[in-house]
Recover the amino acids of this structure.
């Protein structure tokens, strides 16, 4: 109802001007946004999708070859490795950062001392560049002088930790570094979610004699569903983009075993001058993100509509 | 929404602890302290490694404090470390980053604040649709837009220049910043705006004389968000800035990952710390505002 009135009001305000001139300053002010939305985001994405069907090499050419680039993409063992890696990276990061982030948030929510100090410590890596994170962990995981040497010094003289130079484990180094950087962020979101919950829940559960862990598991977590979903979408769309971290930590090595899709696109686009292939890969990335995003946006949107009507 | 999130961060809540030393507290603080040590360890190792001489780094334990403190690695990292071809240290990258950072932050915030204001008080037909597209843009993988932007910048004569990278930062900063300002202005009472309209103030006058003075805190949040984000960027810097304008992160990666011969781990760690210094200072100084910034970036309104 109120929005209906507002509409009428606005209409009477601008009654006498021709339609396009109404609200002209606002339209001029919004031009950069419109340009970015249409030319930048929509235009560029459409361009990339269209040219992913061409055989463009170092320069874009309108020689359309159908799904050939995609066939080649899915046949490429490097792309397969990239996809496997991003799946492993994605699942591990999601599970660990959500579990650890939630546990840290719950621990910080127990009226503890030094809450601010702890929170500052858990969140500071999030302020750093992925390059910085990657390089620190490269040093910590150094097989000769890093943590491995410390463990050897303690007495386990034959201890080996060469995950950075092992084809099977290099991706886990990236996961460890990524979690170190991102878990604090999840914690901050979860903490905000916990603080947003009606505190009478706690009184009620205490009256009923329900232990705290059960209250968290069966009451608080279901109540925090929107926070979890939002966090999930944010982490997931971040996972698809991971690029700097691999470049700094492993450069995709050893032997291309820790490649990720974002790096695949970059390498084919700027290193190997195989534009069509890079654009096909980026289109697959876009499709994946849309598959995650559209159901979420739909849920969010329909939910909002309901609450506005009700 | 962002404000609500920040406010909720303030008071500790949840069930009350009973005794100071109890099994529950031991587990709780034990967990927190172990976690805190794990999170602090890399920072500690960076600092001690950067203060050791190279022989000590190679001999000793990465956790042991330096026996002899030396600032030579820091001087070398800043002044003479080699990035492949040139041996000019990180200082070049630092100044490039500053040159990218200041115009990008200023321009993107000016545009986004006006946009957010227009979207809250001066909606026009289609404005919400454009805004939705803009928000979707925040989630689109950058990889899809990299090459078309190369073409656009080349046409504008901005490819491989500071101007180009500034424009790219402005574009990709726009969704989050516009959302931030829109949500902030949405919280401003409508009556205030209507009163000004009745008094005959127009679009710009209301913006400069009423909205700007009362939205200082959100500008600080936006500055924090942009400064840390742009400083930490690697992808746009390496593609659009051009070799002579490489930002600090790109140069840092070149110093550490493209050295041939003896790896100077202490210089590498000093360089890493130097690159991380600015966002870390921003983070430690701004405290809760930083949290508010990232929460605003994350939690939709």
């Amino acid at each position: 109802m109120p929005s209906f009135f507002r509409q009428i009001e606005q209409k009477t305000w601008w009654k006498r001007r021709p339609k396009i001139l109404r609200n002209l300053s606002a339209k001029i002010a919004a031009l950069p946004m419109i340009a970015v939305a249409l030319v930048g985001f929509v235009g560029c994405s459409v361009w990339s999708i269209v040219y992913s069907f061409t055989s463009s090499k170092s320069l874009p050419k309108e020689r359309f070859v159908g799904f050939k680039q995609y066939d080649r993409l899915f046949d490429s063992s490097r792309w397969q490795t990239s996809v496997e890696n991003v799946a492993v990276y994605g699942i591990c990061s999601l599970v660990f950062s959500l579990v650890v982030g939630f546990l840290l948030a719950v621990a910080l929510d127990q009226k503890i001392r030094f809450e601010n100090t702890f929170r500052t410590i858990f969140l500071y890596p999030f302020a750093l560049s992925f390059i910085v994170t990657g390089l620190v962990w490269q040093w910590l995981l150094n097989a000769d002088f890093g943590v491995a040497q410390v463990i050897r010094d303690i007495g386990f003289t034959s201890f080996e930790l060469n995950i950075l130079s092992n084809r099977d484990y290099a991706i886990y180094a990236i996961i460890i570094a990524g979690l170190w950087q991102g878990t604090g962020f999840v914690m901050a979101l979860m903490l905000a979610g916990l603080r947003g919950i009606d505190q009478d829940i706690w009184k009620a559960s205490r009256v009923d004699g329900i232990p705290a862990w059960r209250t968290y598991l069966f009451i608080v977590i279901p109540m925090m569903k929107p926070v979890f979903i939002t966090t999930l979408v944010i982490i997931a769309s971040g996972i698809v983009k991971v690029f700097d971290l691999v470049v700094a930590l492993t450069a995709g090595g050893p032997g291309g075993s820790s490649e990720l899709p974002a790096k695949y696109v970059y390498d084919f686009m700027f290193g190997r001058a195989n534009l069509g292939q890079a654009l096909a890969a980026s289109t697959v990335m876009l499709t994946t993100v849309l598959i995650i995003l559209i159901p979420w946006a739909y849920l969010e949107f329909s939910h909002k509509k309901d609450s506005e009507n009700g | 929404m962002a404000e609500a999130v920040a406010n909720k961060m303030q008071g500790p809540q949840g069930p009350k602890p009973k005794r100071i030393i109890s099994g529950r507290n031991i587990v709780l603080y034990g967990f927190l302290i172990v976690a805190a040590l794990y999170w602090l360890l890399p920072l500690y190792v960076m600092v001690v490694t950067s203060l050791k001489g190279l022989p000590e780094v190679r001999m000793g334990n990465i956790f042991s404090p330096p026996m002899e403190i030396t600032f030579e690695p820091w001087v070398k990292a800043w002044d003479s470390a080699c990035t492949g071809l040139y041996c000019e240290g990180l200082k070049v990258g630092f100044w490039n980053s500053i040159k990218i950072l200041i115009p990008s932050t200023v321009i993107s915030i000016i545009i986004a604040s006006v946009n957010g204001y227009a979207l809250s008080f001066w909606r026009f037909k289609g404005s919400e649709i454009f805004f939705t597209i803009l928000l979707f843009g925040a989630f689109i993988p950058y990889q899809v837009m990299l090459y078309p932007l190369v073409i656009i910048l080349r046409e504008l004569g901005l490819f491989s220049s500071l101007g180009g990278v500034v424009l790219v930062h402005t574009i990709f900063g726009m969704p989050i910043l516009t959302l931030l300002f829109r949500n902030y202005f949405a919280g401003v009472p409508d009556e205030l705006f209507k009163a000004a309209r009745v008094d005959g103030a127009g679009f710009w006058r209301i913006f400069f004389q009423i909205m700007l003075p009362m939205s200082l805190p959100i500008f600080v949040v936006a500055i924090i968000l942009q400064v840390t984000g742009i400083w930490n960027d690697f992808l746009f810097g390496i593609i659009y800035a051009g070799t002579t304008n490489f930002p600090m992160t790109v140069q840092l990666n070149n110093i550490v990952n493209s050295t041939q011969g003896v790896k100077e781990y202490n210089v590498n760690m000093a360089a890493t710390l130097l690159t991380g210094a600015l966002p870390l200072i921003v983070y430690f100084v701004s405290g809760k505002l930083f949290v508010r910034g990232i929460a605003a970036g994350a939690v939709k309104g």
